[in-house]
Write a structure and sequence with these properties.
mainly alpha; Clc chloride channel; CBS-domain; 3 domains; two-stranded antiparallel ribbon
């Protein structure tokens, strides 16, 4: 016994070690990808915005430029045209080599998880990285999480493919790559792991199998990134605290404002996306037109171009006026819609942080002017606004709260963040910026078979006891000649056999009597005890329906005897396979009906 236990432990340790190595490898590649992408973004910003247009947007406290500023003078006309230049370069690159790299990469990874068995072409992350760097650093509005998520997801998919893992295992490794990419580039490893598990669904569900692998990969990627670019958070936030319950009133107003702004963001994003898809011109040139539209907005509102994280930092420090914040939020919605919706490459989380922070700052400033004794720190509304806005457009309340807390180091605002994110989620359930999200695990092709088992395990035989049919039992001493008369008048297919004490001792089916049915010379000699088998497969009222179906398949039988829990010789009735399947289908219809009503 001890030897067997040690063998089991040894196998478990070996298996755990093997998978840990895989997740660490994913974390290393995601971390290196984040480093490379960050460096590319620094180069692109230096060339396109600084050198060509003389535009030097501020940086968040946790980031510093790798290059000294140039002596170029600010030129609005060049700034108007630079996003179009980035759009044409990005469009040619994407639509020539990897058309699936267009748009925001997280949505493509979600689609791969649900519908493509976790498979991503090897070239996609590379093209996505370069194209996104060009789009974003030439003034296009977008986020860094999309390309980094695809780098990690792409390597996880590649590793799962070359190791010939199952589809389920490849999906998990791909999702671990998403978590590692997001956790490293935003310096939020815990949130990265939770985000990868939560972003897959519109309902508040987690892909629980993904959390631990994503956690391991995210920690490794985060450490690698910080070893190169320094430790600390992306934003530096003042020491905000929540101390006055009356402040929940303005926070509740903020939740509804963010939900309305989120609706505008999603509607404009996909409205512009559909408009560009209808354009009858080569796809290669569509991002250039989107870039030109972005440039026109940027001509008047330069703060809406590129990443915009520095302005979110200034909002945290309460350095921006109300009208500037409103212009930043609304303008950023449209520059992001044109930059990414036209086929440009980038993420949508980054702009959401800036939009939400700006709108939160505007609401905070407004209430600070109305009730300064209650709302004492408008900057706190920036933090909560970041979390609430992305929740309203992504249906990821839990991971978003953690992510914004990690990014800003503002853990004392968890209570108002929870309120705002919960309300924003409930109000905004009808729309999402991630179109490839599915409603829940029941709707995911990745869990088609799993869900069948889950539902069957949830119910037991007692839940369909009304479908357990009473049948005619036969005494063990009944001659076959007498049984023939009974058989000719019944529709029954399975025949329980009872002994002289009314104990259930055997059973046979109509198929089992074929050999005797036409042998008249022995029908007076054969009795029911001779035909019925004593090797009986039975079920009880406490058995779950999954185990019942497995019993049906053991001997390919269509009906099972249901016996008493404490006495297997006491027959209750017969349960048919058809009734179990019908019960399952009814439960599925009920769940789908509830799902439709809840929308």
């Amino acid at each position: 016994m001890k030897l067997n236990l040690s063998k089991v432990l040894s196998l478990d340790i070996t298996r755990a070690g093997k998978w840990t190595v895989y997740y660490v490898l994913i974390g290393i590649i995601a971390g290196l990808g984040a480093i490379a992408f960050y460096f590319l973004c620094q180069i692109g910003t230096h060339v396109f915005l600084d050198l060509m247009a003389g535009y030097r947007p501020p940086s968040p406290a946790g980031e510093h430029s790798l290059f000294l500023p140039t002596n170029s003078f600010f030129n609005r006309y060049i700034l108007l045209l630079v996003p179009a230049l980035g759009g044409i370069l990005s469009g040619i690159l994407v639509y020539t080599f990897a058309p699936e790299a267009e748009g925001h990469g997280t949505d493509a990874a979600i689609d791969a998880y649900h519908n493509k068995a976790g498979f991503i072409r090897g070239r996609v992350p590379i093209i996505k990285t370069i194209a996104s760097a060009i789009t974003l650093t030439s003034g296009g509005s977008g986020g860094r999480e999309g390309p980094i998520a695809q780098i990690g997801a792409g390597f996880g998919s590649f590793l799962g493919t070359i190791l010939k893992l199952s589809e389920r295992e490849r999906r998990i490794m791909m999702a671990a790559g998403i978590g590692a990419g997001v956790g490293s580039i935003f310096r939020a490893p815990l949130a990265g792991a939770l985000f990868a598990a939560e972003v897959l669904y519109r309902d508040p569900e987690f892909e629980y199998e993904v959390i631990i692998p994503s956690g391991i990969a995210s920690v490794v990627a985060y450490c690698l990134f910080c070893l190169v670019f320094g430790w600390g958070t992306l934003f530096e936030s003042p020491y905000f605290t929540f101390q006055n319950p009356l402040e929940l009133g303005p926070y509740l107003v903020l939740a509804f404002v963010l939900s309305a702004t989120g609706a505008l963001y999603v509607k404009s994003f996909y409205g512009i996306t559909r408009s560009f898809k209808k354009l009858r011109i080569p796809k290669h040139f569509k991002p250039a037109i989107g870039g030109l539209c972005t440039g026109v907005i940027g001509y008047f509102l330069p703060q809406t171009l590129s990443f915009g994280y520095g302005f979110a930092q200034q909002a945290l420090n309460n350095e921006l006026p109300l009208l500037f914040l409103l212009a930043l939020a609304i303008g950023k919605i449209f520059t992001t819609s044109f930059s990414i919706g036209s086929g440009g490459s980038g993420g949508v989380f980054g702009p959401s942080i800036v939009i939400g922070g700006a709108m939160g700052g505007a609401v905070g400033r407004l209430f600070h002017g109305i009730m300064p004794g209650v709302v004492m720190e408008p900057g706190a509304f920036v933090v909560v606004g970041m979390a609430g806005f992305f929740t309203s457009v992504s249906n990821t309340p839990i991971s978003t709260i953690i992510m914004v807390s990690e990014m800003t180091n503002s853990y004392h605002l968890l209570l108002p963040s929870l309120l705002v994110c919960s309300v924003a989620y409930l109000v905004s359930k009808r729309w999402t910026i991630y179109e490839k999200q599915v409603k829940s695990r029941i709707d995911s092709p990745a869990h088609k078979g799993d869900f069948f088992v889950d539902i069957l395990q949830e119910f037991r035989v007692k839940d369909l006891i009304k479908r357990v049919k009473k049948v005619q039992v036969l005494p063990e001493s009944m001659p076959f000649s007498e049984f023939k008369g009974f058989f000719s008048t019944t529709q029954q297919h399975y025949f329980p056999v009872m002994d002289h004490r009314e104990r259930f001792i055997g059973i046979f089916s109509s198929n089992d009597i074929r050999s005797v049915l036409f042998s008249q010379e022995i029908e007076d000699l054969v009795v029911m005890r001779d035909i019925g088998t004593s090797d009986i497969i039975t079920t009880t009222v406490s058995d779950d329906l999954n185990s019942v179906l497995q019993k049906f398949t053991q001997k390919n039988i269509d009906s099972l005897p249901v016996v008493e829990e404490d006495d297997p010789h006491k027959l209750i009735g017969m349960l048919s396979r058809r009734d179990v399947i019908a019960f399952y289908n009814e439960r599925i219809q009920e769940m789908k009906s509830r799902s439709v009503l809840s929308k």
